[in-house]
Amino acid sequence: MRSGPTGGDRRDSDNNKQENRHLGMGMRLLLNFSAIVDIVNEKIGGICNWLVLLSCLVSGGNAMVRYAYDTSSNAWLEVQWYMFAIIVMLGASYTLKRNEHVRVDIFYMVLGRRGQLWTDILGTLIFLLPTCIILAWLSWPFFVQSFDTLEASQNAGGLIRWPIKLVLPAGFALVALQGLSELIKRVAFLNGIPVESLEAHYERPTQ
Q: How is the chain split into domains, by residue range?
């Protein structure tokens, strides 16, 4: 005769179910945090997309005024630089969310899906997060010093400088947060939890 499960087996099974339930709840909380980060960076990415168009219009307008009327404005020239800084520094997190950063790799494209996800996880933990945290920390005093002195452009008619220097620590912080979001989504996916917002597909850019 086959004996049924013993009391110890039932207790072990109940403990495993409880642990899995707690693990699932914790992962859901982390995925909710990830979703918030994704939404914030999606909104910022949308603003940066419009700034690309606006910076082109400002640049073209500056060029036409300079050649047609032999005049120019340092303020409008610096507006271009400021918009470019915002596009690059704040748009980087949106680009990471879309998995559109150019990769320099040898093995990534030949790995399977799980291998690629593990590569992303290790790269995020070893390189992305430490680098962004260090750069955000190092660039913060750069902004604080500029803010304390209310730094402004030394060019005639130029803009104030201290606000734009905030995009340095803010940009690195946003990339770190998006990196954490991508890490959470990949860990969840590897544990069998469906993640609709996971954009892990990567295509090598055409040369």
A: 27-190
3-state SS of 84-130 is: HHHHHHHHHHHHHHCCCCCCCCCCHHHCCHHHHHHHHHHHHHHHHHH
Per-residue pLDDT of the chain (207 residues; tens, 9 = 90+): 455 556 555 555 555 555 556 556 778 888 999 999 999 999 999 999 999 999 999 888 888 887 887 777 788 888 999 999 999 999 999 999 988 887 767 777 788 888 888 989 999 999 999 999 999 999 999 999 999 999 888 888 788 899 999 999 999 999 999 999 999 999 988 888 877 777 666 666 555
Q: Do the Cβ atoms of 73 and 203 come closer than 8 Å?
A: no
Give the position of tokens 């104030």.
Answer: 160
Distance between CA atoms of residues 17 and 11, nearest Å: 10
Q: Under 8 Å CB-to-CB from 170, ≥6 apart: which residues?
A: 89, 90
For residues 161 and 79, what is the distance between their CA atoms, to the nearest angstrom? 11
Could you tell me the pTM of the whole model?
A: 0.81
15: its two tokens? 């403990």
Instruction: Show the tokens assigned to 44.
Output: 């910022």
